[in-house]
Task: inverse folding
């Protein structure tokens, strides 16, 4: 098994299939209000705080864009459809959380979403008790790709960053884990791993079941010198 002490998970797109369903809400709004090319700005917002999301949208559509009105409507659509435990979990969530608990590893969450929403969604999904620490967007001042949220998660769990894996789906999330000194593993959701992601991650894996298999593999050891080199 690999040598590590903790795993820090992102939530949206890693624990819940929420990035996709929120995007569907925005696509409906885009059709209703004739908002052009919504997918590009939306994808640029993945992994960021609410404040940074607003900035990205305003930069994309200009100062007169009624972002707050649209965001409120998108949020209402989302909660009407997925509250009460209806938000789908990503493949392998229960399995990896159970595996890590059995192995005695610390489990933390580092998500840009606000705490009230996070705790409600985790409780409704009956997985809240798995997490030793939950760090949310309203507990930090800087958004991913800044590593602040990952470093705080490590501090709260009492684990050195280099002894923790950071599981992320977004480019900004992987950048944040990498800059914080964690061992990034990408499980792509809406966007595939590009060359930058492949360069700065320890692994790119298709789902959390594959992450379990990866963590169970032994840590690669340095090649032993041949007998001739020992003379």
Result:
């Amino acid at each position: 098994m690999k040598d590590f002490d903790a795993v820090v998970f992102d939530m949206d797109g890693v624990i819940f299939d929420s990035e996709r369903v929120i995007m569907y809400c925005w696509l409906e709004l885009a059709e209703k209000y004739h908002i052009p090319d919504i997918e590009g700005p939306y994808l640029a917002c993945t992994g960021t705080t609410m404040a940074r999301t607003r900035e990205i949208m305003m930069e994309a559509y200009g100062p007169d864009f009624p972002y707050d009105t649209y965001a409120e409507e998108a949020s209402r659509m989302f909660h009407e459809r997925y509250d009460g435990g209806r938000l789908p979990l990503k493949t392998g969530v229960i399995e990896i959380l159970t595996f890590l608990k059995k192995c005695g590893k610390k489990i933390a969450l580092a998500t840009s979403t606000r705490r009230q929403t996070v705790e409600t969604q985790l409780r409704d999904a009956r997985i809240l008790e798995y997490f030793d620490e939950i760090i949310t967007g309203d507990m930090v001042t800087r958004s991913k790709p800044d590593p602040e949220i990952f470093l705080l998660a490590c501090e709260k769990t009492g684990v050195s960053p280099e002894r923790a894996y950071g599981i992320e789906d977004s480019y900004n999330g992987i950048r944040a884990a990498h800059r914080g000194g964690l061992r990034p593993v990408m499980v792509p959701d809406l966007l595939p791993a590009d060359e930058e992601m492949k360069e700065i991650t320890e692994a790119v894996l298709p789902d959390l079941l594959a992450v379990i298999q990866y963590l169970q593999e032994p840590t690669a050891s340095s090649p032993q010198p041949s007998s001739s080199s020992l003379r």
User: Anything to note?
Assistant: The longest helix spans residues 18-33.
